[in-house]
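Shipment paperwork, digital attachment
Item: protein structure file
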Amino acid sequence: MTMWVFGYGSLLWNPGFSPAEQALATLPDYHRSFCMSSIHHRGTVEKPGLVLALDELSGAACHGLALSVRDGEEDEVLAYLRERELVSSAYLEKVLEVQLRDGRRVEAVTYVIDPHHDQYCGGMELEKQAAIIAHAVGGRGPNPEYLFNTAAHLHELGIQDAELDWLTERVRELTA
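Attachment content:
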Protein backbone atom coordinates (compact mmCIF):
# COMPACT_ATOMS: atom_id res chain seq x y z
CA MET A 1 0.00 0.00 0.00
CA THR A 2 1.34 3.44 -0.94
CA MET A 3 2.34 5.76 1.90
CA TRP A 4 1.07 9.33 1.48
CA VAL A 5 2.03 12.49 3.38
CA PHE A 6 -0.21 15.57 3.56
CA GLY A 7 1.62 18.89 3.16
CA TYR A 8 0.06 22.23 4.06
CA GLY A 9 3.02 24.41 5.14
CA SER A 10 6.75 23.93 4.65
CA LEU A 11 6.23 20.42 3.26
CA LEU A 12 4.80 22.16 0.16
CA TRP A 13 8.16 23.71 -0.69
CA ASN A 14 10.59 21.58 1.29
CA PRO A 15 9.30 18.03 1.70
CA GLY A 16 12.76 16.63 2.43
CA PHE A 17 12.16 13.64 0.17
CA SER A 18 11.47 13.07 -3.51
CA PRO A 19 7.80 12.08 -3.87
CA ALA A 20 6.72 9.51 -6.45
CA GLU A 21 3.54 11.52 -7.03
CA GLN A 22 2.09 14.85 -5.93
CA ALA A 23 -1.60 15.68 -6.02
CA LEU A 24 -3.71 18.57 -4.79
CA ALA A 25 -5.69 17.31 -1.82
CA THR A 26 -8.23 18.40 0.77
CA LEU A 27 -8.24 17.43 4.44
CA PRO A 28 -11.68 17.87 6.04
CA ASP A 29 -12.30 19.23 9.56
CA TYR A 30 -8.92 20.98 9.90
CA HIS A 31 -7.68 24.43 8.92
CA ARG A 32 -4.18 25.78 8.28
CA SER A 33 -3.30 28.34 10.96
CA PHE A 34 -0.32 30.04 12.60
CA CYS A 35 -1.33 28.41 15.87
CA MET A 36 2.00 26.97 16.99
CA SER A 37 4.64 28.93 18.81
CA SER A 38 8.03 28.09 17.24
CA ILE A 39 10.95 27.83 19.63
CA HIS A 40 13.25 25.80 17.35
CA HIS A 41 12.85 26.36 13.59
CA ARG A 42 11.48 29.93 13.26
CA GLY A 43 12.01 31.40 16.71
CA THR A 44 13.72 30.80 20.03
CA VAL A 45 12.61 30.10 23.58
CA GLU A 46 13.37 33.75 24.41
CA LYS A 47 11.63 35.12 21.29
CA PRO A 48 9.25 32.56 19.79
CA GLY A 49 8.09 32.75 16.21
CA LEU A 50 4.98 31.21 14.70
CA VAL A 51 4.60 28.26 12.37
CA LEU A 52 1.63 26.73 10.65
CA ALA A 53 -0.22 23.79 12.06
CA LEU A 54 -3.45 22.04 11.32
CA ASP A 55 -6.00 23.06 13.92
CA GLU A 56 -9.07 20.84 14.18
CA LEU A 57 -12.30 22.64 13.30
CA SER A 58 -15.52 20.86 12.41
CA GLY A 59 -16.70 21.80 8.93
CA ALA A 60 -13.39 23.36 7.91
CA ALA A 61 -11.23 22.10 5.05
CA CYS A 62 -7.52 22.52 4.42
CA HIS A 63 -6.32 22.47 0.83
CA GLY A 64 -2.79 21.23 0.39
CA LEU A 65 -0.65 18.66 -1.36
CA ALA A 66 -0.59 14.89 -0.96
CA LEU A 67 2.87 13.45 -1.55
CA SER A 68 3.31 9.73 -2.17
CA VAL A 69 6.44 8.04 -0.88
CA ARG A 70 8.44 5.88 -3.28
CA ASP A 71 8.20 2.13 -2.73
CA GLY A 72 10.84 0.97 -0.28
CA GLU A 73 11.50 4.46 1.15
CA GLU A 74 8.65 4.47 3.69
CA ASP A 75 10.74 3.78 6.81
CA GLU A 76 13.41 6.33 5.84
CA VAL A 77 10.85 9.05 5.03
CA LEU A 78 8.84 8.41 8.19
CA ALA A 79 12.00 8.57 10.34
CA TYR A 80 12.99 11.84 8.64
CA LEU A 81 9.52 13.37 9.10
CA ARG A 82 9.35 12.34 12.76
CA GLU A 83 12.75 13.90 13.46
CA ARG A 84 11.68 17.10 11.69
CA GLU A 85 8.06 17.46 12.78
CA LEU A 86 8.04 15.93 16.27
CA VAL A 87 11.00 17.93 17.61
CA SER A 88 8.95 19.43 20.46
CA SER A 89 5.92 17.10 20.61
CA ALA A 90 3.55 19.99 19.79
CA TYR A 91 2.49 18.11 16.67
CA LEU A 92 0.60 14.86 16.77
CA GLU A 93 1.21 12.36 13.98
CA LYS A 94 -2.08 11.08 12.60
CA VAL A 95 -3.10 9.06 9.58
CA LEU A 96 -6.10 10.87 8.13
CA GLU A 97 -8.14 10.49 4.99
CA VAL A 98 -7.60 13.16 2.36
CA GLN A 99 -9.40 13.56 -0.94
CA LEU A 100 -7.22 14.03 -3.98
CA ARG A 101 -8.39 16.42 -6.67
CA ASP A 102 -8.90 13.48 -9.07
CA GLY A 103 -11.45 11.99 -6.65
CA ARG A 104 -9.29 9.33 -5.01
CA ARG A 105 -9.36 9.10 -1.23
CA VAL A 106 -6.11 8.11 0.45
CA GLU A 107 -4.84 7.76 3.99
CA ALA A 108 -2.02 10.26 4.61
CA VAL A 109 0.47 10.79 7.42
CA THR A 110 -0.48 14.22 8.73
CA TYR A 111 0.99 16.43 11.45
CA VAL A 112 -1.67 18.29 13.45
CA ILE A 113 -1.34 20.55 16.48
CA ASP A 114 -1.91 19.20 19.96
CA PRO A 115 -4.30 21.83 21.37
CA HIS A 116 -3.21 20.88 24.90
CA HIS A 117 0.50 21.52 24.27
CA ASP A 118 2.02 24.70 25.70
CA GLN A 119 3.18 25.79 22.21
CA TYR A 120 -0.44 25.91 21.01
CA CYS A 121 -1.65 29.48 20.49
CA GLY A 122 -4.79 29.15 18.38
CA GLY A 123 -7.24 32.01 18.01
CA MET A 124 -4.60 34.76 18.04
CA GLU A 125 -5.58 37.93 16.16
CA LEU A 126 -3.95 38.29 12.72
CA GLU A 127 -2.31 41.62 13.63
CA LYS A 128 -0.56 40.00 16.60
CA GLN A 129 0.50 37.06 14.40
CA ALA A 130 2.01 39.50 11.88
CA ALA A 131 3.94 41.34 14.61
CA ILE A 132 5.46 38.08 15.89
CA ILE A 133 6.28 36.67 12.44
CA ALA A 134 7.87 39.94 11.28
CA HIS A 135 10.61 39.84 13.94
CA ALA A 136 11.28 36.17 14.80
CA VAL A 137 14.30 34.16 13.67
CA GLY A 138 15.09 30.54 14.48
CA GLY A 139 17.40 27.68 13.56
CA ARG A 140 15.94 27.37 10.06
CA GLY A 141 15.96 31.10 9.38
CA PRO A 142 13.71 34.17 9.56
CA ASN A 143 10.03 33.65 10.30
CA PRO A 144 8.93 35.94 7.41
CA GLU A 145 10.79 33.70 4.94
CA TYR A 146 8.67 30.73 6.10
CA LEU A 147 5.45 32.72 5.61
CA PHE A 148 6.49 34.10 2.20
CA ASN A 149 7.64 30.68 0.89
CA THR A 150 4.45 29.00 2.00
CA ALA A 151 2.19 31.70 0.56
CA ALA A 152 4.10 31.70 -2.74
CA HIS A 153 3.82 27.94 -3.10
CA LEU A 154 0.11 27.99 -2.29
CA HIS A 155 -0.33 30.54 -5.09
CA GLU A 156 1.72 28.40 -7.50
CA LEU A 157 -0.57 25.48 -6.71
CA GLY A 158 -3.68 27.63 -7.21
CA ILE A 159 -4.68 27.31 -3.54
CA GLN A 160 -6.36 30.38 -2.03
CA ASP A 161 -5.72 31.23 1.61
CA ALA A 162 -7.03 34.68 2.54
CA GLU A 163 -5.41 34.71 6.00
CA LEU A 164 -1.96 33.91 4.61
CA ASP A 165 -2.39 36.55 1.90
CA TRP A 166 -3.29 39.17 4.53
CA LEU A 167 -0.39 38.12 6.75
CA THR A 168 2.03 38.26 3.80
CA GLU A 169 1.05 41.83 2.97
CA ARG A 170 1.14 42.93 6.61
CA VAL A 171 4.50 41.31 7.38
CA ARG A 172 5.98 42.91 4.23
CA GLU A 173 4.78 46.30 5.56
CA LEU A 174 6.23 45.64 9.01
CA THR A 175 9.61 44.54 7.64
CA ALA A 176 9.95 47.22 4.93
